[in-house]
Design a protein that fits this description.
Structural class: mainly alpha
Number of strands: 0
Order of helices and strands: HHHHH
Strand content: under 5%
Largest sheet: none
Helix content: over 70%
């Protein structure tokens, strides 16, 4: 009953904020993990610095997924007046919850994606410093980790398809 009195625009805005905030936090955490191992391993093998930057790019993709989803979600929000009885209609509440759920979905999936890619990227840098033939093999695993964020975007788009502020 309490949730009916909270504006659906607050839920939608919170969903957009979570999409960006959690995705950027995951990307930052992954870049921290990958970058620190990359710098440390580059002391032993300076050749790994340039090719292992791909791991940092994969981490940054998690943040980009969140920004793109937040933009998509924000375009769904339209101005609808409150009902004559002082309450929001069920359809508008549902739209606010759908945008919130979409943002939370993509934010959490990209938080985990960034951390996953950061850990695998860290391992990739350390393994590449020891044996250069391992780079491509571990990079394939890193691509699979990066796909987690893309799955979150797809699910968020499916969830938000029902969000109609009218």
């Amino acid at each position: 009953l309490v949730f009916r009195h909270i504006s659906p625009y607050m839920w939608a805005s919170l969903g957009c904020a979570l999409a960006i905030g959690l995705s950027v936090a995951g990307a930052a955490w992954g870049i921290f993990l990958t970058g620190s191992s990359l710098v440390g391993a580059a002391v032993k093998a300076p050749r790994i610095t340039s090719k292992n930057l791909i791991s940092v790019i994969f981490c940054e993709a998690a943040a980009i997924y969140g920004v793109i989803t937040a933009i998509i979600l924000q375009t769904k929000v339209e101005d609808v007046p409150i009902g004559s009885d002082g309450e929001w209609s069920v359809k508008i509440l549902k739209a606010g919850y759908a945008v919130f759920g979409s943002g939370l979905c993509v934010g959490l999936s990209n938080l985990v994606c960034g951390i996953c890619v950061g850990i695998v990227g860290s391992s990739c840098a350390l393994a590449d410093a020891q044996n250069s033939t391992l780079f491509v093999k571990i990079l394939v695993i890193e691509i699979f980790g990066s796909a987690l964020g893309l799955f979150g975007v797809i699910v968020a788009i499916i969830i938000s398809a029902s969000a109609v502020f009218k």
